[in-house]
TrEMBL record:
May be involved in recombinational repair of damaged DNA. Belongs to the RecN family. It comes from the Bacteria. Signal peptide: none annotated. Residues 6-522 form the RecF/RecN/SMC N-terminal domain. This is DNA repair protein RecN. Keywords: ATP-binding, Coiled coil, DNA damage, DNA repair, Nucleotide-binding. Residues 173-251 form a coiled coil. The gene is recN. NCBIfam families: recN. The lineage of its organism: Bacteria, Pseudomonadati, Bacteroidota, Cytophagia, Cytophagales. SUPFAM superfamilies: P-loop containing nucleoside triphosphate hydrolases (SSF52540).
Length: 565
């Protein structure tokens, strides 16, 4: 329930504060005085987008604040989910700076627009003339029937779950439907992947087989390239190795003989000083190392032979490696081996996809079965409510001046959608003998208004909304019907706080509190103001609504009679 509303620096409103009654509040005023501006401000409070063009003073920020009593609306879980402290009184605030920056607060905690919208949707339902036009939309009609049938409780954009604690029939179905559609999408993607994989399978298998048959080894290329160099230069290598061995061991002045003599001579000096013994040892080590080198050179020389057959084998092997590298546009065997692993995954993925498709298809069929079962339950509950909905709505509209009205719910089954397997269309005729037609074709503006009010009245007890706002829902009605509309609002106000903007005196007289919106011209500009009327002021205002600017004594008497009702 809205306890207090403050609007500052918004459109034509410089500063406004109102503390509405917990029951029926009426707002009246001349056309253009600012009644709808107040609704625009409340819309911002509930999360609508802001526009700096609507600032009263362009150099000051706009502030809209609402204080709500939420003690009995079980919103603790929502507050906890959004990481907000819960209190019995909730303060929603919007601030729009001259630069265009918008900020939202819940109990002085900064929040996103999405959060303030989620909370606001649980506090107020604003019914505008646009909602009346929505009544002609079949999806809106289906939503109404779901509320009436107890499948879910929803008004406007707000949804309340009233079945089994937190789980409504519609929400239960919708969750299953979303799961089914996800599995259906996954299945379609997998089958598409399989079709594409099968197109590429033969080519990938050919490439993989080519690499597997090549039997590539990690360091093979470097080793083969080195071996080929030796094979191609075998004669030159053998000649140089022979010359090296001769220089070390076979020539007249070979190094090994010279070292042997040096070791012997230094050894004769060892008796004179330890340093000579050390030198002899070092020289002897050199001689031993040189003999090892000479032996290895001899082995290398003996093993080095020109081998045309091996040369050809190495060249062919390297040519195969180079061909594969060019084909796959890489430079190393390591990269070829990585490509081989990738091809193994792609070729193997066809089998993996078959398994994934089978598993997903099984889950999808089970989900579809679940969807159809829940859709059947949902549809059965809807159809069970048709007769009582038609009858109750007829009684209400008949009392509002349409005694010959006929209301028929046209129903057909469709493939599962997010709302079930039912296609609903409310058919209507206001006149005797007329065939019921769709609301768009059959209902006038006044009939639409009366239908919508009757439906809101029927649904009021089935929703958890504390505050309902009607923006000129009385369009197109007058006389005794208007009196009945006012009484209907009074009855709704016994369980809900009602704020009604009206231009009819019959409805204005029904209010527990009456607010008057008016324009005031200053030296600089026009300002919208609002004040709560006392009893005498209410008589004057209703008399003006009856007779215009200069009401007669009869108009004043009629105003008093309306108030006395």
């Amino acid at each position: 329930m809205l306890i207090d509303l403050k609007i500052k620096n918004y459109a034509l409103i410089e500063k406004l504060e109102m503390r509405p009654s917990p029951v029926l509040n009426i707002i009246t005023g001349e056309t253009g005085a600012g009644k709808s501006i107040m609704l625009g401000a409340i819309g911002l409070l509930l999360g609508n987008r802001a526009d700096t063009k609507l600032l009263f003073k362009q150099d000051e920020k706009c502030v809209i604040e609402g204080v709500f009593d939420i003690s009995s609306y079980n919103l603790q879980e929502l507050f906890a989910k959004e990481d907000l402290d819960f209190d019995d009184q909730c303060i929603l605030r919007r601030e729009i700076s001259p630069s265009g920056k918008s900020r939202a607060f819940v109990n002085d905690t900064p929040v996103t627009l999405d959060v303030i919208r989620k909370i606001g949707e649980n506090l107020m339902d604003i019914h505008s003339q646009h909602d009346t036009l929505q009544l002609g939309d079949t999806s809106y009609q289906l939503n109404i029937l779901d509320i009436y049938a107890g499948n879910t409780a929803s008004m406007g954009n707000t949804t309340f779950d009233i079945y089994a604690g937190n789980l409504s029939y519609l929400r239960n179905y919708n969750e299953s439907y979303r799961q089914f559609k996800k599995l259906e999408s996954d299945y379609r993607k997998l089958t598409d992947q399989l079709a594409q994989a099968q197109k590429e399978h033969d080519y990938h298998a050919f490439l993989l087989n080519e690499l597997v048959e090549a039997g590539l080894q990690a360091k093979e290329q470097e080793e083969l390239e080195e071996e080929l160099k030796q094979l191609e230069n075998a004669e030159d290598i053998k000649l140089k190795l022979t010359q090296a061995v001769q220089s070390l061991t076979e020539s007249e002045f070979n190094i090994t003989s010279a070292l042997k003599d040096t070791v012997h001579l230094i050894g004769q000096l060892a008796q004179f000083s330890s340093k000579y013994e050390e030198l002899r040892t070092r020289t002897e080590s050199c001689m031993i190392e040189l003999n090892d080198v000479s032996a290895e050179l001899e082995d290398a020389e003996r093993s080095t032979e020109a081998d045309p057959q091996r040369t050809e084998e190495v060249q062919e092997r390297l040519n195969l490696i180079y061909t594969l590298q060019r084909k796959h546009q890489v430079l190393t065997i390591a990269e070829l081996l990585e490509i081989q692993r990738e091809l193994e995954d792609k070729v193997g993925s066809v089998l993996n996809l078959d398994n994934a498709i089978a598993s997903t298809e099984k889950a999808m069929k089970q989900a579809e079965k679940d969807v159809l079962e829940k859709a059947a339950t949902l549809s059965e509950r809807r159809r069970a409510s048709f007769e009582t909905f038609q009858q109750e709505l007829y009684v209400l509209v008949a009392d509002l001046g349409m005694p010959n009205a006929r209301i028929v719910i046209q129903h057909s089954e469709v493939a599962p959608t997010a709302t079930g397997t039912d296609d609903i269309n409310i058919l209507f005729s206001a006149n005797k003998g007329a065939q019921p037609q769709t609301l768009i074709k059959a209902a006038s503006g006044g009939e639409f208004s009366r239908l919508m009010l009757s439906i809101k009245y029927m649904l009021a007890d089935k929703t958890a909304l504390p505050t309902i706002v009607f923006d000129e829902i009385d369009t197109g009605i007058s006389g005794e019907v208007a009196v009945k509309v006012g009484k209907m609002m009074q009855q709704m106000a016994q369980k809900h706080q009602i704020i009604a903007i009206s231009h009819l005196p019959q409805i204005a007289a029904q209010g527990n509190s009456h607010y008057f919106v008016y324009k005031e011209d200053t030296a600089e500009r026009t300002i919208s103001r609002v004040r709560k009327l006392d009893e005498e002021e209410r008589v004057n205002e209703i008399a003006h609504m009856i007779a215009g600017a200069n009401p007669s004594a009869n108009a004043y008497q009629s105003a008093k009679e309306l108030l006395s009702l």
